[in-house]
Specification:
single chain, 11 helices
């Protein structure tokens, strides 16, 4: 938890030459401005201006000046850069020229959600992520192909698993940057991998997830490969998910949190699954499309894992993919959980059946289906089945408008 003076001292003492100031557009794509180390004190005091009209989802040309303010607590050294003339990175908040926070700054949105939970409800939320990705070969021109790096399967080992060394390098790099990867393994698809993070507060978890994607792409490129985080890169193989584990500091509120997130599942879908390909993934290969929950049930929207006592409140949300803006998704999840707590919501009965094997009948996607599995049946709603339908639900949602404000 560095202060501004700590960072300035570090920069002087450790021969830092460049400082990368990172921020995110509304899609969650990382952007950055590099400044010389000698400009850092001014950046802390005055911010660094940039043209917001050139950033996706930000302002129009006639109102385009915004300022970046580096967060000293996010200082990381880029370990693949030279030891002489180091390069460091800090995430930034964004303001207008008069200093007022910019409403579309997704890090500020998440920070405000954390503050609201703590101050008004007396709770804190922890997040952990499980992120899947594919490694593909490059062609003779260095362009990505759809040829997987290997043909290994779930949790296979070398020599079938060729991604073992790259995953190790990724984990070492993350540790050098102050992050805590928890585990890694080969996933179900050929060339598909997964690395999981230890839980942390929401903003740190979001920063870590964003950094992770950058590190994976960087390490893959250095190995002559392409890292693909898209939700369905191979039509006939498993899609890649971005599983989110959320827990509340007050375990007595667990059912309220569960109920609140289920209540807003359809409204959240546009932000958790924000590309056309996202909807090709849902409904197969362990990617649920049913708005239900179950203990240890990977076919439901929310799985309640078997855990040790210190993780007893953990819920795993299984539908998101890595194309999402993680800051906005975490923000919406916190507000959905707070809605459940505020209104003392209770979830429906859990689903024990494997919903991937169920017989469906009903009005259509999103309106509820009768699930017939064995001797049991129940009506369970489904998530939107296209990007357009998900967008329409989000646009009409008073909950989304209130939370995001734009």
């Amino acid at each position: 938890m560095y202060s501004e003076s700590d960072v300035l001292d570090y920069v002087k003492e450790e021969d830092v030459k460049f400082v990368r100031l990172a921020f995110f557009d509304l899609r969650g794509v990382q952007k950055n401005i590099s400044i010389m180390a000698g400009q850092l004190e001014s950046a802390f005091q005055n911010g660094v201006s940039f043209d917001a009209s050139a950033v996706y989802g930000f302002e129009t040309p006639e109102k385009s000046d915004l300022f970046l303010h580096p967060d000293p607590t996010t200082l990381s050294v880029l370990p693949w850069r030279p030891n002489t003339g180091k390069v460091v990175r800090m995430f930034c908040t964004i303001s207008h020229p008069d200093g007022t926070p910019y409403k579309k700054d997704c890090r500020t949105l998440l920070l405000n959600a954390e503050k609201k939970a703590r101050k008004e409800y007396g709770v804190e939320f922890s997040f952990g992520t499980e992120i899947e990705f594919y490694l593909f070969k490059l062609d003779e021109k260095g362009e990505p192909t759809k040829v997987p790096f290997d043909n290994a399967g779930y949790m296979d080992i070398a020599p079938e698993d060729k991604g073992e060394n790259i995953r190790r390098e990724i984990c070492f790099t993350l540790e050098q940057m102050g992050m805590q990867p928890e585990s890694s393994h080969h996933e179900e698809g050929p060339g598909q991998n997964e690395i999981d993070f230890h839980h942390s507060d929401a903003l740190t978890a979001a920063d870590n997830a964003a950094t992770f994607k950058w590190i994976v792409r960087t390490r893959a490129a250095s190995a002559g490969l392409y890292a693909d985080f898209s939700p369905k890169p191979l039509a006939d193989k498993a899609g890649s998910g971005f599983h989110i584990n959320i827990s509340c500091s007050d375990n007595s509120k667990k059912r309220n949190v569960l109920a609140g997130i289920l209540k807003h599942a359809k409204e959240l879908t546009y932000y958790m699954n924000c590309t056309e390909a996202s909807y090709d993934r849902l409904g197969s290969y362990k990617a649920p499309r049913y708005i239900a929950w179950g203990h240890e049930n990977r076919s439901t929207f929310i799985r309640v894992p078997s855990t040790t006592n210190d993780e007893a409140s953990r819920l795993e949300i299984r539908t998101p993919d890595s194309e999402c803006n993680v800051y906005i998704v975490f923000t919406l999840l916190i507000y959905a959980a707070l809605d459940g707590i505020k209104n003392n919501l209770e979830p429906p009965e859990e689903v024990r059946e494997n919903l991937f094997d169920c017989t469906l009948s009903g009005k259509g996607a999103g309106y509820g289906f009768t699930i017939a599995a064995g001797a049991n049946s129940a009506e369970i709603a489904t998530l939107p089945d296209t990007l357009d339908s998900a967008k329409k639900i989000a646009e009409e949602s008073s909950f989304i408008k209130e939370v995001l404000g734009f």
